[in-house]
Write a structure and sequence with these properties.
Elements (H helix, E strand, L loop, with lengths): L3 H20 L13 H11 L8 H10 L5 H15 L8 H22 L14 H4 L4 H24 L14 H11 L6 H16 L8 H15 L7 H5 L16 H12 L13 H6 L3 E4 L3 H6 L4 H4 L5 E4 L1 H7 L4 H12 L3 H10 L4 H5 L3 H20 L17 H4 L17
Antiparallel strand pairs: 1-2
């Protein structure tokens, strides 16, 4: 029997629901086979308002999968080896690895073009920008991945020699890219002491000149051939060394690990002979990890507050150095004239030996033992500037009165950088 009520209900459902679905227009972006990979990546980023971003590694993984090659599986194994064996590489990212490969692949193509008569202007450029990474093929990965992995291992060993042991203390993760590529390209030529000195100068110019923040792919592309040529004696100073500059007043604003130059200067002090307060030995990897060496105040925070010294001044890198956790506990909040005898007793050394250790940290013993903060501050600032000059080979213009009591500019004292919550503060002793 016909049920008019049910028929009406179905007609209404068809009109109000089904027909609306038929008329609904779904936005579609058509990507043809000839659409460049970088365009696909850009489209995804623009329309994907949620979820995981499609980075260059993800897109290349999909591209390689079309050729039955599992890029992610290969990378995961390499990543595990690199990060398990080298703590300084634990912040390394998959696109860092791809950038290093891209630099080497494009450099090889440029050299091949130049060798067959192309001019410098017409030969393809060296690049590690996204569009160039997306042009990599499975054959490129297979040809270079092992060598680039070895290059990052050599980069890690180079950093250990510079007293940079952990990823947390790495001034610029990005600088790993050209560094690893250089070691790959140089091969055995990069193993000599002379080569390492030249590479180290380039490295410290980049760190202390603070040149590797922001968009730096173009700098990578210049660094690789220019530093390799410098090592091989075929060219003058790389542009990175030429552009590096350190202003003396920058010491006053280096207060936390937010600054690459802060972490770099801390490592530089250890590299150039900073000795452990307790053992008197150079701070090597084992000492660094076993004794939990970290950056601590020389004149303790509690003492500085009592002396009415502003936080922007006592938190500067000028008043900090690498100390073992045990030594820092002995220091507490006491004046240097009080804590130094305790440190000497714990270390089993006399005042003269302790003075030698203090000098290895660019600390003037007489000023520190006399609790003369401003005399210590000015003397240490000058010593630090000399260390920076030695590492970069660049002369720093001095402002002699900048580090004196009552002269430190308010602009430097006020608004200190955000405190690094991971950096331990002194535990005041009663």
């Amino acid at each position: 029997k016909h049920d008019a009520t049910k028929s009406d209900l179905f007609d209404r459902f068809e009109a109000e629901v089904i027909d609306r679905f038929k008329q609904y227009q779904v936005p579609v972006i058509e990507l043809k086979k000839e659409t460049p990979k970088e365009a696909v990546c850009l489209v995804f980023e623009r329309v994907n308002t949620g979820g995981v971003a499609l980075n260059v590694f993800e897109l290349l993984t999909a591209s390689f999968a079309a050729e039955d090659y599992q890029l992610r599986d290969d990378w995961n194994l390499r990543e595990q080896r690199l990060k398990d064996q080298h703590p300084v590489l634990r912040s390394l990212q998959n696109d860092d690895f791809l950038q290093a490969i891209s630099l080497l692949v494009t450099q090889m193509r440029r050299r091949e073009a130049l060798s067959t008569g192309a001019t410098a202007d017409s030969a393809p450029g060296i690049s590690c920008k996204r569009k160039d990474i997306l042009k990599l093929e499975v054959a490129d990965w297979k040809a270079w991945a092992d060598r680039v992995e070895a290059g990052f291992v050599r980069a890690a060993r180079f950093l250990y020699a510079q007293k940079i042991f952990k990823a947390r203390d790495l001034p610029y993760r990005t600088q790993l890219v050209p560094l690893a590529a250089m070691f790959v390209d140089l091969g055995k030529d990069g193993e000599t002491e002379g080569a390492r000195q030249k590479i180290a100068r380039w490295y410290w110019c980049g760190v202390l000149g603070e040149l590797y923040g922001g968009a730096i792919e173009s700098r990578f592309a210049r660094d690789l051939p220019e530093v390799v040529a410098l090592v091989q004696g075929d060219a003058g100073e790389p542009i990175t060394i030429q552009e590096s500059s350190f202003q003396s007043g920058r010491l006053l604003t280096l207060r936390t690990r937010n600054s690459a130059a802060y972490k770099g200067l801390y490592a530089l002090l250890m590299r150039d002979g900073g000795r452990d307060f307790r053992t008197g030995e150079p701070i090597e990897a084992q000492t660094f990890f076993d004794d939990k060496v970290d950056i601590h105040h020389i004149f303790p925070e509690k003492w500085c507050k009592t002396a009415e010294i502003k936080a922007g001044t006592y938190n500067s890198v000028i008043n900090k150095t690498a100390l073992a956790a045990r030594t820092n506990r002995q220091i507490g909040g006491r004046a240097p004239s009080k804590y130094l005898p305790a440190v000497e007793k714990a270390a089993g050394v006399g005042a003269e030996r302790m003075n030698e250790i203090l000098r290895s940290h660019c600390i003037a013993p007489t000023e520190l033992r006399g609790d003369r903060f401003w005399e210590f501050y000015a003397a240490r600032a000058e010593e630090l500037l000399q260390r920076i000059e030695g590492a970069t080979g660049k002369t720093i213009t001095r402002e002699p009165e900048m580090f004196r009591a009552g002269v430190v500019a308010e602009a430097y004292d006020e608004g200190p950088e955000e405190w690094d919550a991971e950096e331990p503060l002194e535990q005041a002793l009663s």
